[in-house]
Every structure is written in structure tokens, then in C-alpha cells.
Amino acid sequence: LENADASSEKFADVYAEDSELSLGGEFKTAIVYCIREQVQIYQKSLFRVGHPQMSESTACSFLPSLASGIRAMDQVKSFTPLLNYL
Question: I want to staple 46 with a disulfide (CB 3.0 to 4.6 A). Which of 6, 51, 66, 70 is the partner?
């Protein structure tokens, strides 16, 4: 996570070209996206268990914790699913 030389784009280029699967260029974007998504999930997991942040740029991307997850009774109807018959 803290390695500045690590690049998901470089990995996707090498993996797609050297792979025995003969992956085309259209898969590079999907590979890069999956890597970035996994790193982001890992960073969020570290944050939730109280691990210190690696940098200030990642710390500002997290939302603050909710004080309460319970809605007021007058708001419940607005957030309740409604089944309509056609």
C-alpha cells in the first residue's frame, strides 16, 4: 500500500501480455479496476479496526461514523419499500 513504485496499470500490462490466457487489451481496464477496488476495501478495513492511516489523502476519503442508524418515526414511511401492482 505504501510502495510508490507499485502500479496496478503496470501489473495489468504485464499480466495481460504475458498471460497464457491471451487476454486482450480490453481486460487491462478491468484488472486495474479490480486491483484498485481491493486496495480500497483493504484500506477501509484497516480504518474500521483503528489502524493508523498511511497518508492524509486516504484519511480524508472516509466518511465519519454515524451517531445513530435509527430513523425518526415520521421518516420511516419515506424509506420503507412499496410494492405496486400493475
Answer: 51
Give yes or no for a contact between 47 and 65, defined as CB atoms under 8 angstroms apart: no
Query: How is residue 59 written as a grid cell?
Result: 484519511
**Buried/exposed 39-56: b ≥16 CB within 10 Å, e otherwise:** eeeebeeeeeeeeeeeee
Residue-wise pLDDT tens digits, 4-24: 667 888 888 888 877 667 777
CA distances to 1, 36, 61, 65, 69 from 50, rounded to whole Å, are: 17, 21, 15, 12, 20
| Helices (H) then strands (E): counts for the chain | 3, 0
| pLDDT tens column, 33-78 | 999 898 888 878 877 777 766 667 666 666 676 777 788 888 888 8
Closest by Cα among 49, 85, 43 to 65:
49
